[in-house]
Specification:
The complex is a heterotrimer. By secondary structure, chain A is of the alpha+beta class. Chain A contains eight helices and 16 strands. Chain A has three domains: 85 residues, Phosphorylase Kinase, domain 1, CATH 3.30.200; 155 residues, ATP-grasp fold, B domain (D-amino Acid Aminotransferase, Chain A, domain 1, 2-Layer Sandwich), CATH 3.30.470.20; 77 residues, Mth169, Chain: A (2-Layer Sandwich). In chain A, the strands form four sheets. In chain A, strands 8, 9, 10, 11, 12 and 13 form a six-stranded antiparallel beta sheet that branches. In chain A, strands 1-2-3-7-6 form a five-stranded antiparallel beta sheet. A three-stranded antiparallel beta sheet of chain A has the order 15-14-16, with helices on one face. The longest helix of chain A is centred in the middle third of the chain and has 24 residues. Chain A is globular. By secondary structure, chain B is of the alpha/beta class. Chain B has a single domain, classed as 3-Layer(aba) Sandwich (Rossmann fold). Chain B contains six helices and eleven strands. Chain B has a six-stranded mixed beta sheet, with helices on both faces. Chain B has a three-stranded antiparallel beta sheet with strand order 7-6-9, with no helix packed on it. A two-stranded antiparallel sheet of chain B has the order 5-8. In chain B, helix 1 links the parallel strand 1 and strand 2. Chain B starts with a strand and ends with a helix. The mean pLDDT of chain B is 95. By secondary structure, chain C is α+β, with helices and mostly antiparallel strands. Chain C has a domain of 208 residues: Alpha-Beta Complex (Phosphoribosyl-aminoimidazole Synthetase, Chain A, domain 2). Chain C is 34% helix and 22% strand. In chain C, the strands form five sheets. A seven-stranded mixed beta sheet of chain C has the order 8-10-7-11-9-12-13. A seven-stranded mixed beta sheet of chain C has the order 23-25-22-26-24-27-28. A six-stranded mixed beta sheet of chain C has the order 1-2-3-6-4-5. The longest helix of chain C has 21 residues. About 1% of the residues of chain C have low confidence. Classes of the chains: A alpha+beta, B alpha/beta, C alpha+beta. Chains B and C meet through helix 1 and strand 6 of B and helix 6 and helix 9 of C.
Chain lengths: 343, 231, 722
């Protein structure tokens, strides 16, 4: 039983019988609730309710069984992604509609990836729904109901201090990785991943994890007949949503995760001399260019780029290991700075 | 007093060093290909890391050699107080692996430079410069990344603790900007560690150790090193 | 590109049309670079044999016996066309290639030289080529740990579209360790090692046998990329294999790749080879059999190994972590057979492939006659500034910017650095050899035969100035398009000149290379390089002898001019600076005077009579004397204005480039003996003046400021580069 009670009293002794520990509601969302984990400061409990909304909460209903299938779908797909090397906030499923997750502070940003024009994207540009995009497209939206979740550019996110350039590049790249792994899995069973939304959160030690959920609520999936198995059914009042969500999960479960190959990823490490440290190769290049007649040149600095191909998706662990590579070999910390680019 | 002379892929001065050591009584040099690892150094009384282009100087001079397993053996010996001498690429490797402070950057001219230079020996003695205090030595250099640099803190500390055995100078022994062949701060041509048993030097003493080659000023440095391994 | 005639000939001999792979193989082996089809017929003019010649021209390196079981090996090659397109890699792989030639004979490589030609460095393109060629040579040679001991650098507009990069490698070996480049025994294995095979430089040699098109980008695909780290591994691995006597035959993969490598070994051994291309370690997937056999990927060697030694060879190759594979066998059928997974891809008779080309017709045109008159000559108003101008000329000024980028001391055997008259290396048993290379392309332009012979004499003079006795010659002949009669004539005349010299001085030519087609067509106009026969001569010192240097080193010693001076101002650097071109008949080759002067000088050296010495070459007497003073602690004061010979004015005496002359610094006590030796050999000599303790260059009638002279000398070249 979970009691919604007071915050833990710091004066109370730390060893408390489990039944007496209280669980705090930390956040009440439109369809999910987030509670503290009495046993750990580093974990949370996410509860999926049977509520379903559309149009920024304008349309709302409660459908029995929806919370459980959304929870189960999220658990299945996050576990699948973890198996491929992508870091998510999932620890494990608790009873029925609850997931035990790592505690993260959520970025106020939605990362949307599109393979096919649909929904607001199609409307925005007057496109035919179903028009395929030549390459997956990642867009960002501000999480703000009052402002109706406006689209926001990467630069604006950085200027507004919501995330750094590096963090955004990471999230964008992971979103593309998630897109690949989900699309490949769905393709095995004749399903098409049209688009989906991810949210990310940062742990206390700075790791960025895929958070929130992946379910019929947060993605568009079409079957062979271009019928939706997702929240569009609710938006358009076109059928039994919970049934569709269950059908979606059933079909996904028929796929074989082992058959989705790990794809190779490339990242770049830029090594540049620290400012203030002399850079003779750059200095010589500058003089030579000026000598060749390019008198508009003021300064030239010469660095190096390492193009590194790995056989794992981008994750905090990979970035930490690349940092180690930089420190141990690729750059000399006395004289050089490094920057990892995930384009 | 077996002296290990390391060879990495691309090292090219190991035979020169062994040949000169063989002419010094009691040196007993033996070649250690790096692939044999740290265990090959266990019996060594001292180590020379010779010049060359270990791993093609790829990434940075000495960077790849510095993370080789054999370097762990060098570090253990250094900790025990055994003499370690790094010449040219060897100096680069010693800074990259942290046994000496600072870094060797590309020469100011961004070109390889090979010429005979004069070195002013420091006034305060070190194991390697015993008997040479304040002397002016004529020894050749040959390097593309010999431009010594370290943080301001380290720089003050090196001077304060007399850890700079050689500085580039003119024929009369004056340390001047004109006599600096590569841009090193304070004309630094060599550095020792705090304990004084590890030295890195950019010039090549083994190339000035036979009369036929035009100078024997490098020989006493190597003789001091050999003597140091006998303790 | 194969000519119609060549394809027809091959078809006739084979009795069928050659297939694609066979055509590619014939194309590379019948290219000028590999086959010498335009030049070979003239080599009988060279003296190539000698008492001391252990292995003459024909294999990787020439080997000469210098006594006590020590053989010196030399190889010389050009890498001109690749360097014009990609100067860094072209020059680097040139160095890589010449090293391979020497080590493939079983030698240890102990020295390098490089001889370069470019258009005037005031043009950015030429400065760019120079900087990158030097960087390429420096990066490569320094990395493999072989010291640079000499070279030459010359500039002329004729090299604008065709730079020249000639390289020399010097080695040493004991006779019992020499490995021959022949496949002698059927049944022996062909083992390749050193690097993987990619698509580099496909048909690079046939590229070198054509002139440049306007579209330089088109030419870019044919360039190879070197890897000095891999080469170092090859050098170390080979040393082990040679030490254990594991190799029956060895050749490096040079121009023409696997085709020429295995083909030439079979030709030398009178055997055949079968090659299984699927066994070749590849760097790029999906290469065709044709590509594999003509690829010019660098750092590869082919060994012939007897079956009982194969295991040990493979063990050593594995230990050294070098890519390797058994790729075929020596056969007794006289064919070069290429198999791909058991299927025939090519089958050519060795006799057709190697040297079986139809000999092309070449016509030797006639060369313009030259006048001996010097009516253009005007006495300078200001001798001092004329001399300073000469010292600052790009063809005389200091080259230290170039050679300070080369490691000259690695291996700790360098007795005399670059910058003096010759580089000197110490060999086993304290033997010392000097090396120098020369070619005055202005002399050779005006008269290819005289100019070539005199250029060879110039190299000889450089050696003799240091006290070394010449013992061998290697050459690299760089000329234009042999299909054009006037270019061909230049080539043939040059060969005649070098041939004469080799016989006159009894010096064997033991190594060499020919590079033709050094012409480019720019907007319909043909630009041809000056005839450039680059000649390298090595000399040996008496045991224990210290080479004599160029800097004046004793105060109050006499400065002697050895040899007579004729008013030969045509073809000189003085003329070139005054007129902007050279014309007339160049300074003559005078073998008799040259021989007498050489003999006398060497005897004087042997008796220890000479303190410092310089030969008189480009720029004449004034320049030669100034060079002795520039970096000396001392100066000089001349007390005569007339010199032996037929010059009529002071200027003629100072700037003539007559052959067979030296400047010697001799102390007063040694003077009588010195003069006696000169008299004995009938060599004209006169005392020019004295060395002095002050830093002055006093010619008597005028003085030259040494400070200004040093500055002109030191900035003459660098002012275009920095």
């Amino acid at each position: 039983m979970i009691h919604i009670g007071h915050g833990r009293d710091p004066a109370r002794p730390t060893l408390v019988p489990r039944e007496e520990m209280t669980v705090r509601l930390i956040h009440e969302g439109k369809v999910k609730r987030v509670f503290s984990d009495p046993e750990s400061d580093e974990r949370l409990i996410v509860e999926f309710t049977d509520a379903i909304t559309a149009g920024d909460g304008a349309k709302r209903e409660v459908l029995k069984g929806k919370g459980e299938v959304a929870c189960e779908t999220t658990e299945f797909l996050f576990s699948y992604l973890e198996g491929k090397g992508i870091a998510t906030h999932l620890i494990r499923r608790l009873e029925g509609t609850k997931l035990l997750c790592k505690k993260v502070s959520i970025f106020p940003i939605e990362c949307v990836c599109r393979n096919v024009a649909a929904g607001s994207f199609a409307r925005r540009y007057g496109l035919e729904t179903g028009r395929p995009l030549s390459r997956p497209l990642v867009e960002f939206f501000l999480k703000d109901d009052e402002l109706h979740d406006p689209m926001i550019t990467m630069d604006a996110i950085v200027r507004l201090g919501m995330a750094t350039q590096e963090e955004l590049e990471f999230m964008r790249r992971v979103t593309l990785d998630v897109n690949y792994y989900l699309s490949e899995l769905f393709r095995q069973v004749g399903l098409r991943l049209v688009d989906f939304k991810l949210e990310f959160g940062r742990t206390e030690n700075g790791e960025i994890l895929v958070a929130d959920e992946i379910s019929g609520d947060t993605m568009r999936v079409w079957d062979e007949n271009r019928s939706s198995l997702d929240k569009d059914l609710f938006r358009e009042d076109e059928g039994d949503v919970v049934q569709a969500y269950k059908r979606l999960l059933e079909r996904i479960r028929e796929a074989n995760p082992e058959q989705v190959p790990i794809r190779e990823e490339t990242l770049l490490v830029h090594v540049m001399p620290k400012s203030g440290i002399k850079n003779p190769p750059g200095e010589v290049a500058r003089k030579a260019l000026v000598r060749l007649g390019y008198d508009e040149i003021v300064d030239v600095r010469m660095g190096k780029v390492f193009e590194i191909k790995v056989n794992t998706p981008v994750s905090p662990r990979l970035l930490a290991r690349v940092e180690e590579m930089n420190r141990r070999l690729l750059a000399n910390p006395i004289a050089e700075n490094t920057r990892v680019r995930l384009e | 007093m077996a002296i290990a002379v390391l060879r990495f892929p691309g090292t090219n001065n190991e035979q020169d060093v062994i040949r000169i050591l063989n002419s010094i009584p009691g040196a007993d040099p033996y070649l250690v290909p790096s692939r044999l690892g740290a265990s090959a150094l266990r019996e060594a009384d001292g180590v020379v890391i010779p010049g060359g282009f270990s791993y093609g100087d790829y990434i940075r001079a000495g960077a790849v050699a510095a993370v080789g397993e054999v370097i762990e053996g060098v570090k253990s010996l250094a900790e025990e107080g055994r003499p370690i001498l790094g010449i040219c690429n060897g100096f680069q490797i010693l800074t990259e692996c942290g046994l000496l402070p600072g870094v060797l950057l590309p020469n100011n001219s961004a070109r390889f430079v090979c010429k005979w230079v004069y070195l002013r020996v420091s006034e305060e003695p070190t194991m390697f410069t015993d008997g040479l205090e304040n002397a002016v030595l004529r020894i050749p250099i040959a390097h593309a990344e010999g431009n010594y640099y370290c943080s301001p803190e380290n720089r003050s500390m090196l001077h304060a603790h007399s850890r700079i055995p050689f500085r580039y100078c003119d024929e009369e022994g004056n340390v001047t900007p004109e006599s600096n062949p590569n841009g090193s701060i304070d004309n630094i041509a060599a550095v020792v560690n705090e304990e004084g048993n590890v030295m890195g030097m950019m010039p090549h003493p083994e190339r000035a150790a036979r009369a036929a080659l035009g100078s024997t000023d490098g020989l006493p440095i190597l003789e001091n090193f050999v003597r140091g391994t006998k303790c | 590109m194969l000519t119609q005639e060549e394809i027809a000939h091959a078809t006739k001999v084979l009795g069928r049309e050659p297939n694609e792979t066979e055509l590619a193989m014939l194309d590379v082996l019948w290219s000028e670079h590999c086959s010498y089809k335009s030049s070979k017929r003239w080599f009988h003019l060279f003296k190539t044999r000698g008492e001391r010649v252990y292995l003459g021209i024909g294999e990787g390196a020439g080997l000469v016996d210098i006594g006590d079981g020590v053989l010196v090996g030399v190889a010389m090659e050009s890498h001109n066309h690749p360097s014009q397109v990609d100067p860094y890699n072209g020059a680097a792989t040139g160095v890589g290639g010449i090293i391979r030639d020497v080590i493939s004979q079983g030698c240890k490589a102990v020295g390098l030289m490089n001889c370069l030609r470019f258009g005037h460095p005031s043009k950015p393109r030429n400065a760019y080529l120079l900087e990158n060629v030097v960087r390429g040579i420096s990066d490569y040679g320094n990395s493999v740990g072989i010291p640079m001991v000499g070279g030459e650098l010359e500039f002329d507009d004729s090299y604008d579209g065709n730079c020249l990069v000639n390289v020399v490698c010097i080695g040493v070996v004991r006779p019992e360790k020499v490995v021959r480049s022949s496949a002698r025994t059927p049944g022996h294995y062909l083992v390749m090692f050193g690097a993987t095979t990619g698509r580099d430089g496909i048909a690079g040699v046939s590229f070198a046998s054509e002139t440049f098109s306007d579209e330089e980008e088109e030419n870019r695909g044919a360039v190879q990329i070197g890897d000095p780290l891999a080469k170092k591994v090859v050098i170390d691995t080979l040393a082990q294999l040679v030490e254990e006597n594991l190799l029956d035959g060895l050749q490096d993969f040079g121009g023409g790749g696997l085709t020429s490598c295995a083909g030439e070994m079979a030709a030398n051994g009178g055997t055949g080879v079968v090659v299984e291309v699927e066994k070749v370690p590849l760097r790029e997937p999906g290469m065709t059999a044709t590509e594999i056999v003509i690829s010019e990927s660098q750092e590869r060697m082919l060994a012939v190994v007897a079956p009982e030694k194969l295991e040990r060879v493979l063990e050593i190759l594995g230990e050294n972590d070098t890519p390797h594979a058994v790729i075929g066998k020596v056969t007794d059928d006289g064919y070069y057979t290429v198999l791909e997974n058991g299927e025939d891809r090519a089958q050519l008779p060795i006799s057709l492939l190697v040297g079986g080309f139809p000999v092309p017709e070449r016509e030797e045109g006639s060369l313009p006659p030259r006048s001996h008159g010097i009516s253009w000559y005007e006495e300078p108003e200001d001798y001092a500034s004329a001399i300073i101008e000469l010292l600052g000329s790009v063809n005389i000024a200091s080259r230290s910017w170039v050679y300070s980028q080369y490691d000259q001391h690695v291996q700790a055997n360098t007795v005399v650095d670059i910058g003096d008259n010759a580089g000197v290396l110490e060999f086993p048993l304290n033997k010392r050899l000097a090396f120098t290379s020369d070619c005055n392309s202005f002399w050779t332009l005006l008269d290819p035969q005289q100019g070539t012979a005199n250029s060879a004499a110039e190299a000889l003079r450089n050696l003799v100035a240091t006290g070394a006795r010449p013992i061998l010659i290697a050459d690299c002949l760089n000329f234009g398009n042999p299909e054009r009669p006037d270019s061909y004539a230049q080539f043939v005349e040059a060969v005649r000149g070098l041939g004469r010299f080799s016989h006159d001085f009894d010096l064997p030519i033991v190594g060499g290379n020919v590079s033709l087609y050094n012409e480019s067509e720019v907007e319909g106009v043909v630009h041809r390089i000056n005839p450039t026969p680059q000649i390298m001569i090595a000399g040996i010192y008496e045991l224990g002898y210290s080479p004599i240097r160029r800097n004046l080193c004793t105060p109050w010693a006499n400065i002697f001019l050895v040899g007579e001076t004729l008013p030969e101002l045509n073809g000189t650097e003085y003329q070139r600076l005054k007129l902007g071109e050279v014309r007339g008949f160049p300074p003559a080759y005078r073998p008799d005077a040259e021989k007498r002067a050489m003999t006398a000088m060497l005897e004087a050296h042997k008796a220890g009579l000479i303190r410092s010495c310089n030969n008189i070459g480009r720029g004449g007497l004034a320049v030669a004397l100034m060079k002795m003073a520039l970096y000396s602690k001392y100066g000089f004061k001349l007390n005569t204005e007339t010199v032996p010979g037929t010059t009529e004015t002071l200027g003629q005496a100072l700037f003539s480039e007559t052959s067979a002359r030296y400047l010697a610094e001799v102390t007063e006590t040694n003077q009588p003996q010195f003069l006696e030796i000169m008299a004995m050999y009938g060599v004209p000599v006169c005392e020019l003046g004295l060395t002095v303790a002050d830093r002055v260059a006093d010619f008597g009638k005028f003085r030259v400021s040494l400070e200004k002279a040093v500055e002109a000398f030191e900035t003459g070249l660098t002012k275009y580069l920095e």
